[in-house]
Amino acid sequence: MLSRKPPPRWASAAIILLATALLFAPGPAQHMESLGTQLFAPVQLGLSGTYSRLEAFWGSIQRVAEIADQNDAYRVEIDRLQSELVRLKELELENEVLRRLLSLKQQTQPGELLPVQVIASDVSPFVQSITIDRGANDGVRTEMPVVTWKGLVGRVIRANATTAKVLLLTDVNSSVSVRIQDPDSRATGIARGRSDGTLLLEHVPQQERLALGQLVITSGLGGVFPEGLVVGKVAKVVQNDYEVFQRASVAPAVDTNKLEHLYVILSDVQSQPE
Using only C-alpha atoms, what is the Rg of the chain? Predict the structure, then answer.
């Protein structure tokens, strides 16, 4: 068997020197670094872009959450303010009612105002009346006026011990002496109830001035209703040259379908048999 001779020592030394020179030579090292940069640059750029998008997306989510929290806070505040507005409107309405009531009290002296509530209403198409929760035990008598701060409602036609029946001003069997509150017209007449819920103003002389929007108030004649209670406003005027009197349709001041804050004017009127 043949044996191989080892390479000369000078050859081994030459190989080691060559490898060392290649390892520390600047050209190849820079070339490898440049090559690595070129190979990994797209990957690095892609990772950087993805991170930026993720960061922006996460920031958007946080912003949406913040806006949602702000909206919830705004809604709570809006609900609070709306509730406060409703309360203030109620107080304003109550203040207006009390102010009008004071004015009404001054008009109805020396009568006393007795607050009452509606407990029933007549469903008959031929009679417009209500039942109130105060009666003879509270001083209520027949022919006593019933009012709200807006104006006249009607009169008591029957007084039981604890309740009373009130004939509304708009009933066809109801009538009241009135006059026009106008500096150019002090016309007087009779306002009668009509089945359509309005009033018919009659017996007004032709020479008296009637116009739309004029205020109609009680005249005090007849002794049942005190002077100055608001009845309604003139809504339509009917004049015929051949007639002695003119007529007018009057819109009631009080909506009888929405009766609240009612008062009986306790006075010294004499009870009359029904």
Answer: 48
The per-residue pLDDT for range 58-87, each reduced to its tens digit, is 777 778 878 887 887 877 778 777 767 766
Model pLDDT for residues 11-48, shown as the tens digit of each residue: 555 566 555 554 555 555 555 555 555 555 555 555 56
Rounded Cα–Cα distance for residues 49 and 104 (Å): 80
Same-domain status, 123 and 259 = yes
Q: How many Å apart are CA 81 and CA 86, to the nearest integer?
A: 9
Structure tokens at 220: 């005090």
What is the rounded CA–CA span in Å between residue 107 and residue 63?
A: 65
Number of domains in the chain: 2
**CB 218 within 8 Å of CB 253:** no
Residue whose C-alpha is closest to residue 154's, from 99, 233, 224, 96? 224
Q: Are residues 249 and 124 in the same domain?
A: yes
Q: Does residue 4 lie in a domain region?
A: no
Among the candidates 53, 82, 107, a domain finishes at 107
CA distances from residue 211 to 50, 113, 162, 215 in whole angstroms, order as listed:
82, 33, 43, 10
Residue 271 lies in a domain: no
Regarding pTM above 0.85, the answer is no
Question: Do 152 and 204 fall into the same domain?
Answer: yes
Q: Residue holding tokens 């109830």?
A: 193
Instruction: Look up residue 270 and give its amino acid.
Output: Q
